Amino acid sequence: MCDVSKAPPKHQAAPASKPAIPPTSPNGQDMKKRAYTSVDDYDSEIYYPSPQAKIGHPAPEFTAEAALDGDITTVSLEDYKGKYVVLFFYPKDFTFVCPTEIIAFSDRSDEFNDLNCQVIGASTDTPEVHLAWIKTPRNKGGLGHIKIPILADVKKDISAKYGALSEEDGVAFRATYIINPEGVLEHISINNMGIGRNIDETKRVLQAVQFVAEHGEVCPAGWNPGSKSMKGDHVGAQEYFSTIDEEQPQEEAFGSKIRSIKDKSDLEKTISGSKPAMVEFYAPWCGKCRQIAPFVEELQEKYPGVAFVKADTTADSIEPLINELGVKILPTFKFYSNGKEVAQPVSGYKKGPLEDAIKQLAK
């Protein structure tokens, strides 16, 4: 039997059921999927557009009010087609780190203009709050005169589309985007809220983006205008790395007390000498070679009657010896007396067998 006591009176309409959670927003945009345990959870949730910013893809379009030149105007990404754009988001107006960044970008905006680039700031504050902050003197925590537009992402849809929005806090992270004249994203970086940006680095990345676009070459680590670039193929990379001795930092040296042999003739002269010889075959990239190097130096001091030498298997003059001598594992230690190999090689990080072989060689 039905319990009619809980049914609404005939003159009252039954409460409408809650609508199913929509997969799209009212304007049809895809929204982030969320899990709800109750209708009340649904009532308290806020929908944001899913992130759409991807390197090599068109930057999400936007049109929003902005504070510029002491007034409120409308700014669109479309306004800057044909120019590079540096779009940077920051958390809040009237805060602490944010004004240092905005003022730095504004004060150096002419440098970016000279690179055919428009700098645009953005936060989730209203345009009126932006304007009030601008009209506050810098010595009282304001921005003062600013030469770049500051977008008002009041609906938070722009920062959400760019993947810059902290949904928990309802404000943007310190996110930076470089967009090329065709509207394509070339660079994305996002800092947590307490970490300010380096304007020099933003400018350097912009210049690298422009260099690649203009010259078709690629920029290695630490590239600055005027530095060497490289062609994006194996031949070009080899040409670049051939200059590493001149301009790039070297790998940390190890085993410096052990003499390096130069080539095959140097090896033959060494193993045919008056002393028995130990030859270590190593490579700078070899971790075990580095680990055992101090021990090998100790053995050299302990057994002065043995000639200790090493051969860098990555050197052009030594590389042919690898196959000839059957070196397949690094490090490999070979032992010679009177020009002939006199013991089984020792390979890998094996201190005990290595010292045992040296003892026999020294007898």
TrEMBL record:
The keyword tRNA processing does not apply. Its EC number is 1.11.1.24. Keywords: Antioxidant, Oxidoreductase, Peroxidase, Redox-active center. Coiled coil: none annotated. Residues 53-211, 247-363 form the Thioredoxin domain. It catalyses: a hydroperoxide + [thioredoxin]-dithiol = an alcohol + [thioredoxin]-disulfide + H2O. Residues 1-33 are annotated as: Disordered. InterPro entries: AhpC/TSA, Peroxiredoxin, Peroxiredoxin_C, Thioredoxin-like_sf, Thioredoxin_domain. It comes from the Eukaryota. It holds the Pfam family Thioredoxin. CDD domains: PRX_Typ2cys (cd03015), TRX_family (cd02947). Thiol-specific peroxidase that catalyzes the reduction of hydrogen peroxide and organic hydroperoxides to water and alcohols, respectively. Plays a role in cell protection against oxidative stress by detoxifying peroxides. May be an antioxidant enzyme particularly in the developing shoot and photosynthesizing leaf. PANTHER family: PEROXIREDOXIN 4, THIOREDOXIN PEROXIDASE. This is thioredoxin-dependent peroxiredoxin. It comes from Coccomyxa viridis.
